[in-house]
Amino acid sequence: MTWFDLLFGAHGWAPLLLRGALTTALLAIAVVPFGFGGGLLLALLKSAPSRLVRVLCEGYTTFFRGIPDLLALFIVYFGLQALIDKLSHAFGDELHLELNAFVAGVIALSVVVAAYSSEVWISALKAIPPGQIEAARALGLDRRRVFMQVVLPQLGRVALPGLGNIWTILVKDTSLVSTLAVMDLLRAASEASKATARPLLFYTVAAAVYLVVSVLSGITQEYLERRANRGYV
Amino acid sequence: MGDFLGFLFNIDMLATWWPRILGGLQITVETVLLSCSLGFLLSYPICLARQSKSQLLSKLMLSYITFFRGTPLLCQLYLVYYGAGEIRPFLTSIGLWWFFRESFFCAVFSFTLNTAAYQAEILRGALTSVSRGQTEAARSMGLSPYRIARHVIWPQALLVALRPLGNELISIIKASALTAIVTLPDLMGVTRIIFARTFDFSIYLYCALIYLAMTEGIRRLWNVIERALSKHLALARGGGAFSAVAVMPPNEGAIDA
Amino acid sequence: MKIARVLSAIGLATALVGTAAQAKEWKTVRIGMDATYAPFESVNEKGEIVGFEVDYAKALCAKMKLTCTFQNQDWDGVIPALLASKFDVIFSSMNETPARAQKVAFSDVYYATAPVIMGPVANKSDDVSPAALKGKAVGSQSSTTFANYIQKTYPDSTYKGYPGADEPNLDLASGRLDYVVTDILVAETFIEKSGNGCCRIITEIKRTPDIFGPGVGAAFRPDDTDLRDMFNKAIKELDDDGTYKKIEAGYFKMDIRGK
Prior knowledge:
The complex is a heterotrimer. Chain B is built from twelve helices and no strands. Helices cover 79% and strands 0% of the residues of chain B. Chain C is 37% helix and 20% strand. Chain C has helices at 2-18, 52-64, 78-83, 98-101, 145-153, 167-174, 184-194, 209-212, 225-240, 243-251, and strands at 28-33, 36-37, 41-43, 49-50, 67-72, 89-90, 105-106, 115-120, 137-141, 158-162, 179-183, 199-204, 219-220. Chain C starts with a helix and ends in an 8-residue tail after the last helix. Classes of the chains: A mainly alpha, B mainly alpha, C alpha/beta. Chains in contact: A-B, A-C, B-C. Chain A binds chain C through residues 11-13, 15-16, 19, 50, 52-53, 74, 77-78, 81-83, 85-87, 89-93, 98-99, 101, 104, 179-181, 183, 188, 191-192, 194-195, 197, 199, and chain C through 2-3, 6, 13, 16-22, 24, 36, 42-47, 71-74, 77, 80-81, 83-86, 163-164, 166-167, 170, 173, 194.
């Protein structure tokens, strides 16, 4: 069969690849609020007054940054479900929580991305001049408002390059979920290449799609950075 | 709670399985060291070609770097491993099949190409961080191009590149866990095998601790090396008068990409 | 203050973890399988899992008036995923071995077929003694009875384990492997599909009980004996009313029931 038939013929694999690509995109996008948000939370907790909290957060970051992402996914994917299951058993069946593979993948990736992004947030927090915070406090704003109205609006701009890097890591890391059970882009390419014995074709198609996403991400990031830095020469 | 800790850390596991774990560790270390050093050797020519005046050459290298940095390593590994299997007659005819037949070589091959792309960009960033004025100053003092490179550019560039290169080494250690997927019994691979035999979850945590020891060890070693090599800069930073010398741009490799 | 709150939360959580599981009324059952094992289970170009075990499991569910859903799960994670409640049953050509039986509860055997050794067509020799295979690359899906068989029988061969059951076949076709150990029907399906005469079945392997067990059963969490008993009853009913024979005839020329 020609490559065209294999992709777009009556039994072509293009629709499955397309669905896989959508799953990959959804996976990556769904991780952003939890992963980046979790990272910010970690960054803030690392300067918490309690020593225990600081040590726990440092330990978390060191652990998940220091082990292979594949291993981290596996530990979270199975460990977390075992824990949830035990808890939901205890609460009875009204509270039976079920993680499908996609949600579990989102959580597992978020755990890793939170560890990565916390470092970016920390350096972003450091980049905000303490004078500003002191000034805002002197104006009588409470800590919460200082954070929400003075620190947070500037944080995004400073953190943008680092977060952009992590986003590209994230897009590529979604492929690891294919080794669990999620029919993402790489998994779809894998199924197709095994069913047709044409790995070169299907993995090249998958690589091309990832490449397009990466290049587009790069362009978007540049645009956002330029926009965010208007007025800061 | 004791039950739960027992679930996490079962000591008997290590007593029974440590020879297998060591064997896996050895393969992991071999894969990483070989890929990283080959990648380092490749990265300089790639970096030069990337900055070459020939449009064709520099565009070619740019696409190479974009491809290997823009696609998942797992996808690259599949492409090399199963792709080579598909074009075996061709590879046999040009006498290269013996190489691609081995999963170890396939893994080292794809990791080398991947890390060379990253390291080339690190080198490029480091070389451009050394200000042009220094080259000009050195030339006006009559230094030969070789001595300019040897005594002016490289010492500074390598110092800038040190940290991102360390991060790259760490990320290759972590990425090496993927080789288990193409049949190589590395640390992750033997962990999976042991888990399949025992169904004991603690082996995954031991495996994590071994990886953690490697990556944390390198991170700390790198801190020591960096401090030792940049003593003069620390002085300059403190002194103020020479602070312009301390060209330490915020490098993108600060997070281990 | 804060620490006290965190500690009490942890205490509450551990207290809850200790509570025993409760019996439940089964209405929907989630079935997990590693769909790399055509004709028993594989993924088609629509992304659906199809094959003998899918049809059979559907018939069992219909008999029990259960709603069943199917999930794909890589083989390495299939038992952990069952134990972690990602699904409730494994229907994935899992042979009932003593090691597995310690972790999961098996249903009655619903099929038993012969394992085979497959080699390239170019290999004309039928000798599969350990001496003949010394130094050769022998592959299978890892964490399987096939893997155990290879490592036990051919300690002097190079063993290669793959995450999926279809990958060793591809490497046999490409020449990376000299031999593959797999199921007879999986081997036949692959040889027929590959069409280019790459490989042939060299010999059947005797199903020694210590390695291969009595046959293939569905696997459940040890607590869910009620669910297992429901399945056992349905397995017997499908045998008696001829449904098993009908589904089997749609896939195979031979009888795989193996009682």
